[in-house]
Design brief:
The chain is mainly β. 0% of the residues lie in helices and 56% in strands. The radius of gyration is 17 Å and the shape is globular.
């Protein structure tokens, strides 16, 4: 894996243009330098509430992904770079007619191994 951040499932939240998006990515089992996942638009006009599928390649801190709204045809491309906990770059529609910048932040993983200590009065 060229970047350890992408070696496990991650969640990102932020802006695609003016729209708020929530993205989930995980490594592809068959290719250590590839990711797959999806994103949702929260509010805004673009595919509100519909899950949009993603698949892409990682090279160092660079991430290139194609998206598909219907699971078959490519509907857009994401080109970004991970700097610290921020993924920033440009999204472009498949026809090249629309382009938007994006800025997403890694959501800290919830540590399910830690449980609250119960206080005993014995």
């Amino acid at each position: 894996m060229s970047n350890p951040v992408f070696s496990k499932q991650i969640e990102l939240r932020g802006k695609l243009g003016k729209d708020t998006v929530q993205m989930k990515l995980q490594p592809k089992l068959e290719d250590a330098d590839s990711v797959e996942g999806s994103y949702l638009v929260q509010g805004g006009k673009r595919n509100h509430g519909n899950k949009i599928l993603l698949a892409g390649e990682i090279t160092g801190n660079k991430l290139t992904m194609e998206e598909s709204e219907d699971g078959v045809d490519v509907s857009g491309q994401w080109d970004g770079e991970l700097i610290g906990t921020s993924l920033r770059g440009t999204w472009q529609s498949d026809d090249g007619m629309r382009s938007e910048s994006f800025s997403l932040e890694l959501v800290p993983a919830k540590n399910s191994n830690k449980t609250k200590k119960s206080v005993s009065s014995k």
